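Deliverable D4.2, example record:
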Amino acid sequence: MKIFISYRRADNSQAAGRIYDKFVAVYGHENVFKDVDSIPIGSDFKQEIDKAIAQCDFLIVVIGERWLSAVDGAGRRRLDNPSDLVRIEIESALNRNMGVIPLFIDGATMPAPDELQPSLQELAYRNGAAIRSDPDFHRDMDRVIRAMDRALSSTKDDHGETFSNETPADRILNKEIRKEVIQQASQTQQEIICSERGGYELICIPAGTFIMGSPETEEGHRYNEAPAHEVHLSPFYMGIYPVTNEQYGQFLSDHSSIKKPRYWRDQRFNQPYFPVVGVNWNDVQRFAQWAGLKLPTEAQWEYACRAGTTTRYYTGDSQADLNRAGWYRENSDGQPHPVGQKEPNAWGLYDMHGNVWEWCQDWYDVNYYTMSPVEDPQGPDSGDVLVVRGGFWFSFGAVCRSATRFGNPSGVRDYNLGFRLVKSIHKDFQIK
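Output generated by the structure prediction step:
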């Protein structure tokens, strides 16, 4: 997807900037063109604009209250000037019969055809969308992105695969497996919900009892996984995959004062659908509060990971089984990968094994299993470090087991450490 954003600085450049940031978070900087600042000095700006638009799939026209009425220094309406940049951009796109999508901000509406120059009147018949301010901004933009993605349903990826009616998130998932998961969720009445902010997907995890920890006979067993003990959990919603850079970017765009993750500008880790890394436990708490969610307890994490299994991984006990489920030292090529590319577990969760370590809500205590309550354990009351789970893209296989547990100081911002979130269901059960 390549996008050209047309806007008038005198109208609302701040809103255009947020729209730009949203598209960049989904499609990458190299695929979104917003301004003429990059045009080489001395170049014919009309030719350069036409060349840039020719490379794009859509022209986004940001229309605010002053878009139509803006005037130049002589008091003439800018759209009436053949050299007006906004006019040139729209004319170029209409002449190419490409997708032109008006986005209306600040309550603006589409001008009537007779209010526009003849060369622009076709714009009045293009279907557009209203983009509201917070808390509705991301919800409105997500609808636009889904519509754009559907419009390009015949686009092929680098491997010649044809996409059909998919959102950007669908493109990074194994489509056949995802289809099965959605179908299974429907059959088992596992509701899928979406966070009010950030568009984060969670699936219902049923209440149940499981054996937490591992027996001494399990290959890779560590002393802090004993004793294996029974735990009962209330139902909750669990993130289908770790929070991605794209989703974290939405949070940052709403909080300009928040410190960016440590590796935010590192191309090895900052691709839109990679799990976000370089965030410490307190960063995660701020994101979770913004999204209206929580970190999982350690017990919730392991219960959700196992999805009814008692094997080392939710796919089985062998290295071949781990290869199906996650990215680790033997198959990752020494780097993280987009979420959702491996096989999900029986409850529709991806990337529980490997790819990135995941923060949990609990304090870490090596001996906690000797005193853990049976009902909805919340972890120790205090501690020096916090639980992380799952292993990462360069971990040995044994470290990626369902039972593996480690602790990290709350302030660590590492390249291998991300998170996923949960939402409580039972009204009497509150995650601390």
